Predict the structure of ABC transporter.
Amino acid sequence: MPAGEGDGRGACRRAFRVALALAFAAGLGACASTTPSALYGLNAPRSVQGAAARSSRQILVPQPSALQALDTVNIAVVDTGPIYTYFPRAAWSDTLPKVVQAKIIETLENTGRLRGVGRPGEGLLIDYQLQTDLRAFELRIDGQDRAYVEIAARLLNDRTGRAQASRVFSAQVPSRGVNVDQAVEAMNAAVDQVLSEMAAWVLRQV
């Protein structure tokens, strides 16, 4: 690494943290009441490696659970601690659990291997529920700038009420920088890995 490059990157990270801290100090309530200048979505994987043969099963995907720090439209940045702050003037297109729920459903539908996938209240005669918990979904700036996504999943047999299987899926992807576009780009890459692995796992179980 050229002399001074590491110091320069460290200075950028420190400046970014200060900016986020100032925005946070101004009050998240004030940020939430201000219309964001940009709304961000997530992409769903178009294909899933290792998917099983077509199944006649139908799967219900409830909204993921999440702690308050992630149950929001705000795009999270996590420093050592972990300490949560958020990108100012930027937001997800809906609360993060709803965005992730939509992308789980879309990923499973994209496989073309299931008879039906849907949300509660859509009238499916379901065989399984895919219950999920958002454990992490953020840009981490605690030394190496990277997106980190972690989702715990439990597949419940809806006819017996018993858990069929459970697993934690996670991925981290280096971010090209610390602005919101670069952060969301890295988060999309990380969630693509997580949802692809989750969909292949679901298809093997049903």
The two ends are 49 Å apart (CA to CA). Residues 44 and 103 are 5 Å apart (CA to CA).
